[in-house]
Amino acid sequence: MNWEEKKNYYEILELPTEATLQEIHEAYIRAKNAYSGDSAALYSLMSNDECAKVLEQVEEAYSILGVADKRREYDKARGLNQSQTPEGFNEEIMSKPDYKPQTNLSEMLKDSNSTPNHESVIRENALKEEFKYKQEHSSRYEASVSKIQAVKKFGLNFEVDNGFEQEIENCSEYTGDFLQKIREYKQVSIERMSEMTKISKTYIRNIEADEFSKLPADVYTRGFVYQYAKCLKLNPDLVATSYIHHLKQLKSTTL
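User: That's the sequence. What structure does it adopt?
Assistant: Structure tokens below.
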């Protein structure tokens, strides 16, 4: 079917392209009620034939947009909703802490009209389609949310200083003081570093202060520094090895 020759089904149902299947169903019911033959509001504006033509378009639009597979094909042909999740949720909405894709069919149906009339049957079919739509893409929802959460947790946002970047590149001995400078340069607070690495704030401060007497055994300290460096987008092996070597030198000169 050549979708390009068809009218815009979203416009027919007066909906945004990111509408959910439930919203499509509700718009369909509104349109059916508005253009029915006994609608007093249209009595003096449109003839029965004109209303019938509009209703025909409404039925056609709903037959496509109200079915998950057909809607997906229609959207793809028109280049719609390609940067969004299938149901129209954008990444900002999906990244909210309280966002949970609804995949429980009984929950989706609990508010439906129990009376087995034509409208309730249509509503139930729409909800089943929505359930199917979400189930098919549940892994995509979860992957997208996980990715967004990871970016928020580990992403760095700072103004690049080319001179300091070169200093980091040329560094051959990472000290606690230099690690602190890098952390502050990359706009990561001790609190956030602790959250990212699961290392206590006390240990982070001791690492940056070269307080070797207040740090655990070297093997554990190395692991802490490895995670610290990884979060700052440094070479973790190089930084951890260099820092432990630095600590050993401090210990030897103190003893």
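The chain has two domains: 3-153, 162-254.
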